[in-house]
Amino acid sequence: MVMNEQPPSVSRRGRKRSEESRLAILVAAFELVGEVGYPGLTIEGIANRAGCGKQTIYRWWPSKAHVLLEALAVKAELHVTNADHGSYADDMRAFLQDTFRLGRRQRVVDILCALMAEAQINAEFGQLFRTDFLQRRRDALQVVVDRARARGDLPPRPAPPTVLDIVFGTLWYRLLATREPFGDDLVDDLTATLAQAPQPPPGTFSDSGDQR
Description:
- The protein folds into two domains: about 15-60, Arc Repressor Mutant, subunit A; about 65-195, Tetracycline Repressor, domain 2, CATH 1.10.357.10.
- By secondary structure, the chain is mainly α.
- The chain is built from nine helices and no strands.
């Protein structure tokens, strides 16, 4: 006898609806901030765009900054790769290309600058910004560094924490201070700086023998 298939449980349907609502809210916030700017963005506006109630948003996020923070984190994880390309230099180049390509999008730039500003005046949000966004991006690049160490092609200098500081320090300095573009030349320069093994100084021993 064929058993009748049991209908999905209420909890399963609820989880699906919750995930659909969450994604709709994140997309709505990301799109809307590009239209009205961060000062003009409101929870009510996000709710209207997402087709949900304000209480649904406040159930998951305490403010518009928190919604945008999660939207940006999801965007970064989708668009920035730390996949294995066969060498440290190629892995680093791909990570930088993806990161800077995303950083050239004006909407992303505006959100990053707004959230960094919010993090300076709101201590609770600042802590979340550091742990849920900045640290997650550093962890993504740490995968590249750890793989290079295991592979055996990680240069001894700069040290891994400095590698992360250089990459993200450059990103934030250009975003917040100089507003210089993220071009291919910057990718080339950083890849060469971070992934090229240092040459021995003149007058030291090398594999070819004594320096005369």
